[in-house]
Amino acid sequence: MPNAVFVSENMASTKLSSLLKTARYAPAGLPTAINNGRIVVLGVLEPNQREVYVAADVAAATDVIHIVDNPEVIYSQETTRGLNDYTNVAGATIRVRKPVVGDHFAISGRAIAPLGAAPVVGNSVVTPAAGTLLAEIALPVGTESFIGLIESSYVLGADPLGGRNIIMYSILVTQVL
């Protein structure tokens, strides 16, 4: 089964390192694997660490979120693997990005909890009440900590044989706490 994919198309965090953090995903204190494009909340710094935060699942729609975006390419990795084969292993440190209003990024459908069979262009994605997937919604309430507009969709890695076609959704960040 393919994993979620994230592309930081035009985000402030690509220029402002203060919007990037290092974390270890451990919901309920248990180190767990997580895909790029998923959302997490940052807790306290790990014991004896200056820069590594404990990351966990969103617990309320008002939680301040960060998007998991660890580099997919590892020096020892062969180029035959695809982006949708990549998973951040349990216990590893991960890079997370703090979105800001005006950011553009793209995520695959595996990082969105859709209203129907697939996300719809023109709808919004918001912070969910719980979990690590952005929730699709037709009209945001406005009290969510994060609101993004699904501006368009496109196919990443268009493979004529259909093996690597990943449908991506371009998101414009319109509200962030």
Written overview of the protein:
The chain is mainly β and 177 residues long. It has one domain (6-176). The protein is 0% helix and 38% strand. It has no helices and 12 strands. Strands 1-7-12-11-9-10-8 form a 7-stranded mixed sheet, with no helix packed on it. Strand 3 (39-45) and strand 4 (52-56) form a beta hairpin. The radius of gyration is 16 Å and the shape is globular. The N and C termini lie far apart (33 Å).
The gyration radius over C-alpha positions equals: 16 Å
Strand content: 35-45%
Task: Give helix % range.
Answer: under 10%
Strand elements, count: 12
Shape: globular
Q: How is this structure best summarized?
A:
With 177 residues, this protein is an all-beta fold. The protein has no helices and 12 strands. A 7-stranded mixed beta sheet has the order 1-7-12-11-9-10-8, with no helix packed on it.
